[in-house]
Amino acid sequence: SKIGSTFDINSTVTNSGTTVTAAYSTVQYHLSTSATSNSKTFLLGTSNVSPNFAGGASNVVTTAVNIPATLAPRIYYLWMTVDATNTEVETNENNNVLVGKEVELNFRTV
């Protein structure tokens, strides 16, 4: 991807529980220089998954994000966090973070 460009992130969110969700759930997308830790990341964008999301159901979330011109060209990892604001009561809070593929950022050509 080019620094300064905009693109869509399409992700599938699954309610792995057995009950219907009661609240909106915030999905956050971050870029990190680490594939093993999402600390020291850059927030790319957020989306919401609507309430009344049935147990076992999946929902596709599309989020338009912009890669700021201030990021250095290098390899980053795309991280996704569901229920990032902890609004949903869950029996398992350990399955809300996923690291995606490598994203190589380079300079935008004008």
Give a description of the structure.
The protein is an all-beta fold. Helix content is 0%, strand content 47%. It contains no helices and six strands. It has a four-stranded antiparallel sheet with strand order 3-2-5-6, with no helix packed on it. The mean pLDDT is 84.
How is this structure best summarized?
This protein is mostly beta strands. It has no helices and six strands.
What keyword list fits this structure?
single chain, mainly beta, two-stranded antiparallel sheet, 6 strands
The SSE order reads: EEEEEE
Please state roughly what percent of the residues sit in beta strands, choosing from under 5%, 5-15%, 15-25%, 25-35%, 35-45% or over 45%. over 45%
Number of helices: 0
Task: Identify low-pLDDT runs.
Answer: none
Largest sheet: 4 strands, antiparallel
Overall outline? elongated
| Order of neighbouring strands in the sheet with most strands | 3-2-5-6
C-alpha termini separation = 14 Å
**Helix-strand category:** mainly beta
In terms of topology, how is this protein built?
Layout: E1 6-14, E2 25-32, E3 42-49, E4 58-66, E5 74-82, E6 97-105
Antiparallel strand pairs: 1-4, 2-3, 2-5, 5-6
